[in-house]
Design brief:
Helix content of chain A: over 70%
Radius of gyration of chain A: 20 Å
CATH class of the largest domain in chain A: Mainly Alpha
Largest sheet of chain A: none
Strand content of chain A: under 5%
Order of helices and strands of chain A: HHHHHHHHH
Oligomer: homodimer
Number of strands of chain A: 0
Structural class of chain A: mainly alpha
CATH architecture of the largest domain in chain A: Orthogonal Bundle
DNA sequence: GTCTATATCCAGATAGAC
DNA sequence: GTCTATCTGGATATAGAC
């Protein structure tokens, strides 16, 4: 690990611990131990435990913006601009969304952090709904509108279709954070769901 | 408040506080203050903070069983046995499910308790998935199978239909715990969703 | 920038009077 | 069964040497 990264290491260690245990349950000493330092070292980088917390909130926001930009581009500006708007393309994209969201990386940790510490920062509750529920609806309403325009799906209420399409996936992401060992089960349910959706709404 | 209820009052106060703030963030003194006692009084009823926690877990389990029994009976053994299997009956039942689950009573508190303190009791994570996601799927798969048998809905994959039917509702219950002020918005979305579902799957 | 030692505070839990 | 007073441990945060 490079020198000068210590500040970032503290942030990552705290993110992990807060995400798993909440804010009050985690001591500064625990965070420092993860990094291989003693507690007072942390105070050279952050003036208080709360300041470290706030730094994570900010980082989570940046991480989210970037991630959404990448997802949007992957769907709407990909090299192969047809692929995302086929049944197989959608299965690939949504499975991918699921996997990166639940895998042991920043998106997962940020998501669980927001959930675990929301009582320490009331605004986080709204952030969770907005990011992980309603933004998804908006994104997939655009996807489904496009699928309707292209004649892949029948013309129907795109908002309601998006809700039925992506709500189960969002719910399985949450379920999978709680029971990661069931990941494969959720993935196969997810594929079954999308195929069913395309049968119901697909144009013959 | 009747004498002899003190033990129950401690449990209710702790349930509320743990549900909102998690386990470590709540002190025994806070719980006692809610009841109008000092902290040591609690130790006459529960040997430790952890024992109080365990008592809540147990009570939540009992509460859940009873609630599910009532919901099942309301659907399958109601006086008017046709009503639950019509579009209007379903709107009524699901709205009711939503309202009681998010309103300020035991079901709400138990649900939020399980979510907030799950890091203190790993089994609770599985309990949440089972109670609030997969049991719902099972229940509504039975409802939809019946609706298909009765010729109200077209014959299709009842499992996938149940998932599309109830997942958005479950998600809005969670969203509504975080933003209760949006309850009416979620309720009208819920009605729109059910009407859409009956349009898509309803027999002409 | 990191350590050891320490100040300060507050938590869970107990003792003993009433 | 409830109180006040208290014990004990562990938390955040600081002081000062290196």
């Amino acid at each position: 690990m490079r020198r000068g990264d210590t500040k970032q290491q503290f942030l990552l260690a705290a993110l992990k611990l807060f995400a798993e245990n909440g804010y009050d349950s985690v001591s500064v000493a625990q965070i420092a131990k993860q990094v291989g330092c003693s507690a007072p070292a942390l105070y050279k980088h952050y003036p208080s435990k709360k300041a470290l917390f706030d730094a994570i909130v900010e980082a989570s926001s940046n991480g989210y913006e970037e991630r959404m930009k990448r997802i949007n581009e992957a769907i709407f500006n990909s090299g192969n601009s047809e692929r995302p708007f086929t049944e197989e393309g959608q299965i690939e994209i949504v499975k991918n969304l699921f996997i990166t969201t639940v895998s042991d990386e920043y998106p997962k940790l940020f998501r669980e952090f927001v959930l675990s510490v929301r009582s320490k920062h009331p605004e986080l509750a709204k952030i969770y709904n907005s990011r992980y529920i309603f933004s998804q609806y908006e994104l997939y309403q655009k996807v489904i509108s496009r699928l309707i325009e292209m004649g892949v799906l029948v013309d129907n209420d795109a908002e309601m279709m998006a809700i039925e399409y992506i709500s189960p996936v969002t719910l399985w992401v949450e379920a999978c954070s709680r029971e990661p060992e069931r990941k494969e089960e959720f993935l196969s349910l997810l594929e079954k769901h999308i195929r069913h959706f395309f049968i119901v709404y697909g144009k013959k």
